[in-house]
Specification:
Elements lengths: L3 E5 L2 H14 L5 E7 L6 E6 L19 H9 L8 E4 L2 H12 L8 E6 L7 H6 L2 H10 L11 H4 L11 E4 L7 E6 L2 H7 L10 H34 L2 H7 L8 H5 L19 H11 L8 H12 L8 H5 L6 H16 L22 H19 L1
Parallel strand pairs: 2-4, 4-5, 5-6
Antiparallel strand pairs: 1-7, 2-3, 6-7
Helix pairs in contact: 2-3, 8-14
Length: 386
Amino acid sequence: MDDIKWLQGKGKPGIKSFFQDILTRGLIDTVLMPAKNKKGNSYAWFLMNKDGFLETSDPIPPVMTIQGANILKNITKKGESWSKTAVVLRPCELRAVIELTKLEQINLENIILISFDCPGAYPLTQYISGDQTSLDQKYDSSLYTASFETERNACIMCDKFTGQGADIQLCFLGQSDDGFLISAASAKGKELLKDVNGTNEENLEIKTKKRDELLGQLQKEKNEKRQVILDRFKETIYGTDNLLNVFSACINCHNCRRACPICFCSECYFESKALYSEADNQLNRATRKNALRMPSDLLLFHLGRMNHMSISCVSCGACEDACPENIPVSLLFSLVSRDTQAVFNYDPGHSLEEPLPFVVYKNEELKEYEAHYTKRHQSACNCNTK
């Protein structure tokens, strides 16, 4: 099994030792990962070399302060990295990176994508205001057991919690807590893995099988839970009135757009002068309706955003984390995205080789909608000829 090794070292300290080792030996030049901020109460992203590797770095932090795909986008959007950089990403961040690469917003030249079995994350407000020492201990102990409990909607219903699709995947689930599996899934990953100081143990196949069995069980449970949660939520928002009720607390701050990695326009239409209107126009609208909610066009913004990003939404929950009014926008966007992606049989972030539905044409695509339209059109034509 040349594409997998066993690394000795418990949990996060073992991962940090792994990165320190490959940095020191020049297998990579820099690593991009989160670390504790100066106050020590939250996390920020740092680009580190072997001399600047931070003791406070945390490859699997208990919160997601910024979607990692946004960080990598800011670094590589205007060109490739000149140094070999390992980027540590949650699975949802990884999927967003793959989508943004296909959208030509990220350049993966000299980038090694590293992901892991993700237990989830705490809501940011809960972590900042809570007993962080206790929360950290609970979180770290769940790496190998998948026993982590969270109130974060995106994590509760996440059924794609492994780093599948990364160049290198760090695998904890089902393993003993004195080490972890490291797996390579690409040419870049295999090139790095061959020089990694790991072991090819005789029981490597047993360890891999144990993990695969647990993964299969967990993914089935999570997928069923996801469908139940989204279907129930769908019942509560069906119809314009119910949808407006969901957004009743929205203050039109557009934080969800800014936090979303898939919303990458340099200028958003909904923040442009195109939506400016004179006072008389707004007064006329208010007169016709007897009242006009301010700011206006709130629902138009959310519907427009869904249309923009739903095909590539990876259900990371960054939008909901950024909402100051605690609106369940991740549930809404995940629901719309689930149904939109099903129409095209598209799995965002699954593969760099799978083209975006909007850039390919298939003869047999959307036949169920076409047949409905054709039947009605033919019926109308027959009536007109009688």
